Structure formats: structure tokens, C-alpha cells
Amino acid sequence: MTPDFYKSTGISLTIGSFLAIATMFLHPSGGNIEHIIQIAAPIQITHALAIFCLPFILFGFYGLTHKLSGKWKLSTLAFIIIVFGHFAAMLAALFNGLALPYFLDQYSENLEQNITTLKLIVNYGFAINKALDYVFIVSFCSAISVYSLLTINSKKLPKWIGYFGIAILIFAIIGAATNFVFTSLTGFRIFIFSIAGWILCSGISLIQSNKK
């Protein structure tokens, strides 16, 4: 791959990380059905931004995959896992952030008559969203761990980025062992800020490796 390819993918990772951070800063707190209807516009905007950042991050990981590629091609495995995580994130954003507010808004005028049915639908949607969040979290932790180990074992990127990724994995394992709720808004923000920081560092390193 040409140096310009690593530069463009590094820039893409950097842009994607900033968009992910902005998404979590702007993400409103959830609530009951009435509250979701009231804040439908902010919910849809933030989740549309979340979907918008995914291609930037995926293209960036494509460059990182080639940068860390070796004879075992384990970086390709990490990239495939990342694709699974991106797909889960996109579905979660579509269902819970775009479709749900639009669906509930259609019943805003006769909410009381349909409240029982709507609660069942909303609870089911939240259950699906929680499952997709776990797929996303596990996928990213697994892929970043592989990328980090490859970074540590090679001289292609700074080793501290690899140790940073391993620290994220350890944090996730400790959180799971202590029943930390990663799928709450606070827990998800902490996780997103952590991986966005790792993605940002990886993107900058790809750009700098182009200069070298």
C-alpha cells in the first residue's frame, strides 16, 4: 500500500473518532414514552451522526489492517470482527434511534389509548438494542485486542498504543466481572470514549507512519 493510503485511512480514523465522541456528548438521556416523543429530534440527530461516523472508522480500520498485516493475516480476522461490531452498531442506531422515535410520534395524539401496547413494543425494542450493544462491545474489545497484540509484537506502530488497547480489554473484563452496566448511557459513554481514544491514537500514528 502507498503512504498516501495510510495517510487517508489515518485521517478517516481520526475523523471517525471525533464524530463518535461528539455523538456521545450530544446523546440525550432516555426516559418514558412521553419523554422519547418530546426529544425525538435530538435522538434521531445523534443516532444519524453515529451511523455517519461508522464508514469513516471502518475505512480507517481497513488501513490499520493492512499496516499490521503479517504472515498469519490475523489483522484480517480483527477487521472481520470489527465489521460484525459495526453492523450491530448500525442496527442498534436504526432501531432505537431512528425508527423508534418515528414510530412513537405516530401515536402522540392518542397515546393513552395505546400505552399498554406501546410499552410492550418499546420494551422489546430496548431488549434488542441491549443485545446489539453487547455484540458491539464484545466485537470491538476482541478486535482491538488482536490489533493491540499485533502492534506490540511489531515495530510498525508505537507499542504504547498496543498496551492502551490491552488496558481497555482489562477494563472491560473487570467491568463485566463486577456487573458494571455497559449498556446504560453512562457505561456506554465510558466505553465509547475509551475506544474512541484508542482509535484516535491509531489514526494519528497511521498518519505519522506515512511521514516516516
Assign a percent range to the helix content.
over 70%
What summary fits the major beta sheet? none
Instruction: Please report the total strand number as a whole number.
Output: 0
Q: What structural class is derived from the secondary structure elements?
A: mainly alpha
Distance between the termini: 14 Å
Low-pLDDT parts are none
Give the overall average pLDDT.
93
Task: Sketch the topology as an H/E string, one letter per element.
Answer: HHHHHHH
Shape: elongated
Strand proportion, as a percent range, falls in: under 5%
Count of helical stretches: 7
Radius of gyration, CA atoms, in whole angstroms: 19 Å
Assembly classification = single chain
How would you briefly describe this protein structure?
With 212 residues, the chain is mainly α. It has helices at residues 3-26, 33-38, 40-67, 74-105, 111-153, 159-177, 185-211.
